Amino acid sequence: MNTLIKQRPMYYLSLSIMLFFIVNAVVFTVNAKEQINNKFSDTEDGGFFEVTAGVVALDSRYIDAPKDIGLVADLRFRYYWNNFFLEYEGFKGLGFPGIGYNFYNQNAWMFDVFITETHPAILWDDEGHIENGVISEQDGLIGITPRDSDDRISLRATHFIDDTTVVRIVVAPISDLKGMADVSPYLAGWYGKTWQHKNMNFHATLNAQYYNSNMLDYYYGIAGDDISDKFESYKASSGISVSAEFGVAYPLAKDWLLESSLKFTRLPDSIYNSPLINTRLESQAQISVTYVLF
Amino acid sequence: MITGMKNTFAQEQSENVVIMQVKPQTCVSLHEGQECFAQIVVNWQADLVNDYCLYSTQTPDPVFCWENVSQGTVEYELNTKENVRFMLTQVPKTRFMLTYKPYAIIAEARLNVSWVYKKKQKSRLSWRLF
């Protein structure tokens, strides 16, 4: 097995902080059970933590990737402490646990500064399969230089239009892909809506993400030692990916959920002809059971 | 939940032991404050044949009434944000007799409403979406 692993100090830092938050969360939960009226605003100390396990089917964007169906287990959590927060939304989210600070939460607006991953690493492995919902180790990409994840400081604005509709924008102009702060615009927007039918809760989200040319060329361009018979030289320019997701959650019992979702992502035109790319439309379906610890 | 309750106003004549149960006992919705939907089945059984009415805390009108029976079942769909209490009352045959309390509750059962996410938060909405 030839596994290429990127050293990600921010990842380990976030894990350490995550442990701190989890310990605090457990203490908080014990205390919370003693409270009669346990009400919170969005950013008061506390949070939630859930574990999900299920089946994911993925038609990956990468060349020669298996159309894989696999079992996945994942954590999802968000915890606030003095307006600092740690969150991880699982394989549905942008990336590894985000660490941030909420500096505005009034009426229907929330503003956060946080660090998160805006593009996952591209690794390869002879035995690569679905891992946490993503084929992160691509045996079809054997021979290329591994690509690091893009970890960025971001500004996130969330606007609650009503009780069922949310708009979110993330602006992250600084990249660390070159080992130092580099101006490399990244912009993402989401529109999400939920609705209820009986005890089923449906949701639909639309998402668009803008990547600048440096970012897309880093991940999907072919140059230098990467050039081979299989991977011809390629330079990617900037582009926009769009995605749509439809999902449903059904409460099975107190603390237990059945969830399912289907997501399609249309890749930027500028990378469609990359030798690393197999399909313009990436799709993912999942069905899972979730246990909400708190 | 099974609740047995002695018929207090009938005790002077005879003891009417009533057993009533509600299925399901718990209705679970996703969020606190969200309407919870349930197909409710209420079963009851009494020792004495009489007229009975089933009430709930959702409405002042009876859910269902029975005449000259000692047992009954009613099934219907409800939606609620709060716990629902069901009360079986015995309709007195001789209402003019002031010594009797008309429509006294002779059995109770409860549908409890629970939530997966205990807190109604805006961020919970975004959590579900993004």
Automatic annotation (TrEMBL), chain A:
Pfam families, sorted: MipA
Transmembrane segments: 12-30
Originating species: Psychrosphaera saromensis
Family statement drawn from the similarity comment of this UniProt entry: Belongs to the MipA/OmpV family.
Superkingdom classification of source: Bacteria
Lineage: Bacteria, Pseudomonadati, Pseudomonadota, Gammaproteobacteria, Alteromonadales
Alphabetical keyword list: Cell outer membrane, Membrane, Signal, Transmembrane, Transmembrane helix
Predominant location category: membrane
Protein name (Swiss-Prot/TrEMBL): Structural protein MipA
Subcellular localization, as worded in the UniProt entry: Cell outer membrane
A GO CC term assigned to this protein in UniProt: cell outer membrane
